[in-house]
Each structure stands twice: as C-alpha cells, then as structure tokens.
Amino acid sequence: MTTSVVAVAQTTYSIKGRVLDKLTGEGLPGATVQVVGNGANTGGGAEDNGTYSVAGLKPGTYTVRASFIGYKVLEQQVTVGNQNTTATFNLVADNATLNEVQVVGSLGVAVERSTPVAFAAVNEVKLRETLSNRDLPMILNETPGVYATQGGGGTGDSRINIRGFDQRNVAVLVNGVPVNDMETGQVFWSNWDLGDVTKSLQVQRGLSASKISVPSVGGTINVLTKGFDDKKAALARVETGSNNYQKYSLMLSSGTLKGDWAFTAYGSRRTSDGWVDKAFDDAWTYFGNISKRAGNHRLSLTGMGSPQSHGTRSFQAAVGLYSTEKAAEIGASPVAGGNKGFSYNPYWGTLTRYDRDPTTRQVSNVQGSEVLNERSNYYHKPQINLNDYWQVNSKLFVSAVAYASFGNGGGVSGLTSGNSSTLSQTVDGQTNFQGIYNTNVRNYPFVFNTATRRNDTLFTEQRQSGSFLVNNVNSHRWYGGVLGADYSLNDKVTFSAGVDGRLYRGLHYREVRDLLGGDYARTIGNLNADPTTRLYEGDKISYNYDGKTQWLGGYAQLEYKTPVLSAVVSGTLSQIRYKRIDYFRAKQVTVDGQSYDVGFNQTQTINGRTYTSADGQTVETPWAEFTGYSVKAGANYNVTERNNLFVNVGYNSRVPFFNQVYNTQGIRYKSVQPEGITSMELGYGISYPSLKATLNAYYTLWSNKSTNSVSTATGEPVYSSVRNIDARHMGVEMSVAQEISRSLQLNAAISLGDWRWKGKGLLNQVTESNVQVNQLDQPVFLDGVHVGDAAQNQFQLGLRYEPIRGLYIRPSFLVFSKYYAAFNPDNILEEASRTDAYRLPTSKNLDLHFGYELKPVYQDKVRISFRASVLNVLNEFYFTDVSNRSNSNVFDAGNLQAFFNRGRTFTLGMAVGL
Predict the structure, then answer these.
(1) Cα torsion for 317, 272, 424, 721, to the nearest 10°?
(2) In the structure, what pLDDT confidence band is assigned to residue 97 with cuts at 50, 70 and 90?
(3) Of 105, 396, 507, 893, which sits most exposed with the smallest number of CB within 10 A?
C-alpha cells in the first residue's frame, strides 16, 4: 500500500496603503500601522510619503489601526481574501493644531481615491524649496491645466488661469474664507505675503469640493496657512537675491500651553528694487493666531495682513519697444527708439523740485533729483477670522467662522486737466515729470491788458496744474460668516448643510496725490460742484462712488462613502444684491415716481414748482438682484487597490459681477443675465507606493459669459464690456509622480486644451471720460475664435535628487504652447471681419533649486539650513502676457503688445530653527 503525503503551502498576502493628514491630504511619514486579528499582531511604519505595507497575512479579517503623534487613532476592519488589499487612513489632528486653525466652516479639501475631482496639492516642503521670491501662484505652473504669470512684473501683480479661465473665475480661499474681490472677482496677491506661512496649497480643477457658494468656473485654490504646531518652535530666515532683494522673517510657535492655549506669530520685512525698471517693492507682513480648547469647542482667532507699496508696469507695449530681435521673430516691424530691453518700464521718471520767483525768475530751494513712479500700488488689507469648531457628539460636527476685512489703498496714476491718464513722455520713453513740473510751476493765470494789447501775468494768483498724480482709491469694508454642520446618518452616509453671508462696501474715488509744481487742479467729473472749484492734494476728483454688495448663500450635500465607492450630490443657492451710490452724478429729485437731474447751477420746474440741486438727493440705484445656484454630482470607484475611476457633472448659474451690471457712468446695462456653466469630467488614477498618476478629460460650456477689457489705441483708455457670449473649453490632463529611488523622484504634467468662443456677443464701450463709443449693445462676432490670454498646452518635467542626506537639487523644465493673444472684440463688428487670434511662439523655461540642511547641533535642538534658487537658468525670454489694445483682429503681429518673463535671477536663503 502506498501513502501519498500532500504538503499544502499557506499563501500569505499584504495590507498596503497610505496614512494621510485628512486636512491637507499629505502623507504622514513615521506613522505607525498595527494589524491585529486572525492570530496576527504585527505592523510597520509609514515611509516618507505616508505609504506603508504589512506583509505575511493569512486570508481573514483584521483590525488595522493607524496612529501618529498629535492625531487621533483611526481603525478599520479589513478583510484579506486571495489577493493583497489596501486601506488608506485620513487622520484628524487631536490637539490645538492644524485642524482648528485651518479648517474654516466646511472647507472642502479633496482626498485621494475618494473625492471625485481633479486636484493637486503642494505641501510645505515643496513651497519652501521652490517658491523662491516669487508670488504664490507661480509655483502652481507645475500643476496640469494651470498657467500663471507675473503680469507686468510688479511684486504681487501675478495672475493665474486654470483651464483657460482667468483668476476672476477661480475661487481662492484662505483658511476657508473667500478672498476674490466682491465686485470684480479679481485676486490681488500683493495683499498677502503668504509663502512663508502656507502649510498646504491645494488646487481643485473644474468642479471643486468646496461646500460654500463661490464664483468657481476654472477651479478652486485652497490656501491653508500654518496653525498651531504640536511643539514649541522658533524659525528665523534671512534671504537675499537679484535686484537687491532682501527679506527677513521670524516665526514663533508656543505649542500647547497650560489651559489648552496655543499661539503662533510671524512677521517679515521685504524690500527689492524689482526686476522691472523701478518696480520697487516695500512690504511688511504679519500673521498670528491664538487658540483655546473649551470642552467640545475649539476656538481660534487669526489675523494677518501685509501693508505694502510697489511700482507697477500697467500696460503691455509693442514688442519692438522691448526687443528688435523678438519683433523680427514674429514678423513685426522694429519700433523707432525701441530695443530698450525686456525690463523696460515707461511708467517712471526723474524730477528735481524747486521754487521759482515769478517776477525775477530766480530758482531757489532746489531739491535733489528723485525717481517718481507714474504707476504704483499701495494697499493694506488686514483680515481677521474667529473660528469655532464644535464636536457636538459622535455624529454631529458644527463649524462657524466670522470674518472681517478692511482694505485701504489703491493705485497711483497720472491725470490731466482733460481727464486723461496719459502723461507726456521724454524722448527716451520715460514719464516727463520734469517737463510737467516746469510747465506747472510757471502756469500763472493772465488777463488781457486793453491798454498794452498784451496778456498780463497775475503773479499773485495760484497756478493750475495741467498734469498731476492721483490716487485711484479702491478701499473696502467686508464682513462675513460661514456656518456649517456635518451629520453622520450612518457609517456610510453624511449629510452636510450650511449658510454663507457677506456684506461688502467698496469705496471708489480718485484723489489728488501730487500737483507736480502747481497749486491746484480744476474739478473734473463732479456734476454737483462749480466747474471752477479748485482742488488740492487729498481732494476727490474725476469719480466718486460706493458699491454695495449683499450676499446670502446656502448649501446642502449628501455623501456616501465606503472603501470602494464614494459618491456625492450637492447644491448651492445664493441671493446677491448690488447697489451703486454715485456722489459725482447730478443729484436727482423725484416727483410722482419720476427722477429728474438737478446738477450744479441747474433747475427743474415740475408741476409749477422749481427745484434746485439743494433739493436733490445723491443718486442711489435700486438694488439689482440676482439669484444663482449650482448642482453637482460625482462618484469615485476604487476598481482595485491601485486603480480608481471618477466622474463628475454639474451646472452653475452664476450671477454677474458688480462691474458687469453697471458701466463706469453708473448706468445699469440692459439684458444682463446670469451666466450658465455646464461642466463634466472623467478621470482615472493609479496609486502605488512609488508611483502616482492621474489622467482626466474635461468639457465646460460657459453660456452668457461677460468680459471686460481696456484699450489705449486712441491714446485715451477705452473700456469695453462684452456680454452674452458663449465659450467652450475642453481638454485632457495628466500628472505623474514617480519615486525612482529613495534619492531620486520625478514629477511630470501634461495638459492639452481646445478653448474657443461660440456665437456672438454684445459690446459696450466708454472712454475714461464716460463718453459712449459706438452704439449700445453693438453685436460682435466671435464664433470659432480661440480663447486667448493663456497657453492651451503645457508640458512640465521636474526632478528632486538627494545625493546625500540633507542635500537636494531640484530642476524643473516647463513648456507652454498653443498660446493665443488676448484680444478686444471691438473691430469684429461684421461676421466677414472675424479672424482668429494671433498664436505666439512656444515658451521654454528651466529653474533650478538647491538646498542643504545641516545635522542638528546644540543637543540636537538647533537646525540650520541653506537654500538657493536660480530662475530662468538659460536666460531665455518669451511672451507671457499678450494683449492687443490697438486692434481686435489679431492677425497682424505688428499690433501685438506684450509683457515678457523675467531674466535670470537668483535667491539665497538661510534658516535657523529650534
């Protein structure tokens, strides 16, 4: 008899995944993962990117527990079958740290393999290593679908486009508080110097995960600032660089103090001559927060601001004015007196002030020569947030934030007695301040002497300034609040709801800043004042109005989540009201429901009674009311432990901005309609411990779109508004992050877009003097024309190489192509005249970043590190911002007006931390 013995080998499997910070989506290196059950009690630690792997597990059910210092322990029940399985943990902070300070209201932060949106996150390490002395948006160029430039080159003047939509249509949130201008949607990056206090920066493209009603079409940028560290810390930095760049900063964190108090404080000082001629930078920055745990409540108070001033280069110029070579490259003609270099800035000049005796003509009290900026910006926008996070019970979480912002400042420009902002220039192309001063200081009035038949100069009278400087003030008072709640219906379904309220008042006027040798200026634009009124420095001139906005919004969301499937359905509803109060328009009297203008020295006789200006009231428009709403739905399906699919669809009925409702004369446009945005997206992701890749396709149709632009073709600015035009944006995007080895990582991004206008729109134009140009609602024909102002194709490749512990080298190569010039449609008045926008040459840029961190010294408590960046290593120049203010049909390269990138620059920095 023969006996056979069969040996059965038990096959084992692994549980793998990542341990992440739920708020930022960043990996938590060093987190502990413990696996218990089915006869096993084992575990391991998370790697640098938060990945972990626990091997040798038999099929069965296990309890997997993830923990990390300063975070709540999280457990999952995981079943291992006949293959490896995955479990991802999103840990929540367990003390007065990032959770309280950074999460405001119901801030939607996308989570990998869960949230059905395309997104990318920039963590603190990358910010420190690659931002250099650039504005915060510039680091986002490595994100697919993003096009960011430094605009005219002034500090804080950067702009960003996502999927072809400019930053007026990209929602920007700082700690959950919306910061887009309430009247224009613009974001002014000079209002904050957030680079050093940003903990994480997340860009959600297309339909975002944000739960509040925000003006998002291209996407949402969530800026999460530093909160309360879980230990005491101090960090001092000093930086220097090209163009006399200097920056000094200090940050202090208390850690958790007795009574569960904590604080963080930051301050910095920054100065620079600017890489654009005379685009100086002078800024202070402060940031601070205090938190307190009180029972189930966590309270935090945050304040920040950056009082600053900087020189600007407001408008693009003809290509040949910068470079004859670049003009020839695109087939444009040279410009007489051109080839001034890419940093050329016409908006400054020199001035020597003096006194002049009117009778003897002797000059005295001669001052030293000063550099004077015709165009500059000054602003201070302190913002204060008070947050309350309330864990009512295990199922209900309530968050609330009250915030206030008080913006004060504006922009400096020139002005003439004819209400034009175009000042005379010298033969070398700079503002002719000396010539203007010489004219004003001699500009005494005169009378005709009938006896001598000559003009007699009245030397005892004041002198009128024909040209001078003004402040274009755009201050505001902004108050708001967000209240939100999340309620767990069961372990899979969560219901969220909340409200968002805002009150905003913008103060807009010009005031005389510098009379440049004269004694007064004549009143301009004020129909309620004597035209002979004399204005002095600080007096209002040209325009003076307030814009009021009232906003009330609500949201509701239902989310279903399992390890395999996540789905979400949400909607928002908002009611927005606008009112304009114009102090310079002729006052009005209202009789029997009819309004009549009664400006200075005017009368109106109605029903036998005569009315004067004294009987009138300041013009205050009726409230313009709009209702907006959005609905969106999406789902993410984890096909395997390494692959996931997501899809989302949505519709947004967005109300127009304030400046799309009223023209510069304060007259409400006719037929202003809410804009409808239909979006859909499909995405695929691959996630391995050493490889992450995403591929997504999007389609967005924007109906009834409104655009605003300015032209200087005639010498005086002409402001254009186009309404009721459609635009179609579609494309594909891909990103790859590969850890080739522990010392070498690769990242790449590709986006290919096709963005075009559809149909025709309605054009309205006014001059700076509020004179209507052409007819009201002039049809313009744009069908099939490419959307300009941003590159539609993008290719990026970056590496991070760490040859020895503590030393890194990070090159980044970026290519933008299919970039069509921005254009004004004011010449496309007949369908036969429609032409496509001009396509610019492909741009290429290489940046290089270095750094080294020494081993801790002084009982391993003091950390010293060094950083260096070389931007535009190859010193290549390319088009970044191209407008066409001289012609709409942008087929002639000679009509292009442009800004170029900065040349090669460097920064060096040293940091000491405890």
Answers:
(1) 50
(2) very low
(3) 396
